[in-house]
Design goal:
This protein is an alpha/beta fold. Helix content is about 20%, strand content about 25%. The longest helix has 13 residues.
């Protein structure tokens, strides 16, 4: 998929992307060949890609060139200021957030499922960039990938309590309950002082777009078939 964020296009040193169904499954454990082929098509050396080995948590880690070509265990977000190092995470309905601060020339990428969202992974990514690179959230640019939208992210009535801090993002329709995860992501970013004009959402639902994306909730595969997102400084 040609993923384009308006603000990112002003920075030729920034390279990022998001795979689609035509690229094949990007399962971080089962499809290494498919992943390597994809990155080569993107003119990226797979040995310069570092991947978060997801925990569906709030953990974020700063990485450098020494981890290129490896998996970083039990994290959902990666941040760096290293050149020619591509940060990557996967998702199959979960959202991928892309972070770039042009003043400090630092990047981040974060996998955001509902557990990580409620576990603070968005805030932890912003805080990680502040603590490690002294960025200002007001100068941070954030892109939101395709992911499952409120039209299809259904929860049980019992699970409503998990989202009690976000009543404005819970909807009931035809005796069903839906949650606007992307809306919660944006609200958390705003609470962390990221400017609204610097947050760009693709607006695309993975569940709705069957020809273009895998969807865990729609397809219910035996093994997860995810897309991959990446970002790097070149």
């Amino acid at each position: 998929m040609s993923l384009l964020f308006t603000e990112f296009k002003h920075f030729p040193n920034l390279k990022y992307g998001f795979s689609d169904r035509r690229d094949g499954s990007m399962n971080r454990r089962l499809e290494k060949e498919s992943r390597d082929l994809y990155f080569r098509r993107m003119l990226i050396d797979p040995n310069r890609v570092v991947t978060a080995d997801l925990l569906h948590s709030g953990k974020v880690e700063m990485v450098g060139g020494a981890v290129a070509g490896t998996y970083v265990s039990n994290v959902d977000g990666l941040i760096t200021n290293a050149d020619n190092l591509f940060l990557s995470v996967t998702g199959a309905d979960c959202f991928i957030l892309y972070f770039y601060d042009p003043r400090k020339n630092v990047i981040g990428i974060t996998h955001v499922g509902w557990r990580g969202l409620l576990g603070g992974v968005v805030k932890n990514t912003v805080q990680g960039l502040i603590e490690n690179f002294a960025i200002s959230p007001r100068g941070l640019l954030v892109g939101i990938s395709p992911g499952i939208r409120k039209c299809h992210f259904e929860i049980s009535f019992n699970d409503k309590v998990k989202y009690k801090e976000y009543p404005g993002f819970i909807f009931e329709k035809d005796d069903k309950v839906f949650v606007d995860l992307a809306g919660i992501i944006k609200s958390q970013l705003l609470n962390d002082e990221v400017l609204e004009k610097n947050i760009e959402d693709s607006g695309v639902c993975t569940y709705c777009n069957e020809q273009e994306f895998f969807s865990y909730r729609r397809d219910k595969p035996k093994e997860v078939k995810p897309m991959i997102g990446y970002i790097g400084l070149v």
